[in-house]
Amino acid sequence: MPDSNSAGDAQLAAFRRSIDNIDAALIHILAERFRITQAVGEYKAANALPPADPGREQKQIARLRKLAEEAHLDPEFSEKFLRFIIDEVIRHHERARGS
Predict the structure, then answer these.
(1) 65 touches 79 (CB < 8 A)
(2) Backbone dihedral region of 63: left (phi > 0), alpha (psi from -120 to 50 degrees) or beta?
(3) Rounded to whole angstroms, how far apart are CA atoms 1 and 20?
(4) Residues 34-87: tens digit of each pLDDT
(5) Has residue 96 got a pLDDT over 70?
(6) Which NCBIfam families match (predicted)?
(7) CB of 96 closer than 8 Å to CB of 43
(8) SS3 readout for 4-61
(9) pLDDT attached to residue 79
(10) What is the pLDDT of residue 4?
(11) Are 75 and 69 a contacting pair, CB within 8 Å?
(12) Cβ neighbours of residue 65 under 8 Å, at least 6 residues apart?
C-alpha cells in the first residue's frame, strides 16, 4: 500500500497537469481573440471608426459579470480581467489607426 504522501503527490501532480492544460487552452483562446480583434482594429482604422466603443464595452462587462456569477466566479475578478483585455485591444486599435 502506498504511503499517503506519495498518493498525495500523485494527486497534486494530476491537479497540476489539469491546470497546465487549462492554462494552455487559455493562451490559445486569447491568441485567437487577439487575432480577431486585430482584424477589427484594421477595419476600424480603414473606416475611420474610433478605437474604443464604450457602449459595447459596458454591455460586454455586464454580460460577462452575469456569466461569471452563473459560473460561481467572482464577477469583480472577471470584470478586472475583461478590462485588462479591452484596454490591450484598444491600445492595438490605436496603433492600427496610427499606422
Answers:
(1) yes
(2) alpha
(3) 29
(4) 999 999 999 999 999 999 999 999 999 999 999 999 999 999 999 999 999 999
(5) yes
(6) CM_mono_cladeE, PRK09239.1
(7) no
(8) HHHHHHHHHHHHHHHHHHHHHHHHHHHHHHHHHHHHHHHHHHHCCCCCCCHHHHHHHH
(9) 95
(10) 59
(11) yes
(12) 75, 78, 79
29: cell is: 483562446
- In the chain the domains, ranked by start, together with CATH numbers, are 4-98 (1.20.59.10)
The C-alpha cell at 56 is 459595447
Of the pLDDT bands very low, low, confident and very high (cuts 50, 70, 90), residue 8 is: confident
CA distances from 34 to 14, 57, 87 (A): 30, 16, 12
- Give the chain's radius of gyration (CA, Å): 19
Q: What is the pLDDT of residue 3?
A: 56
Cell representation of residue 73: 466566479
User: Which residue type does 24 have?
Assistant: A
Answer whether residue 2 shows pLDDT above 80. no
Contact 85, 99 (CB under 8 A): no
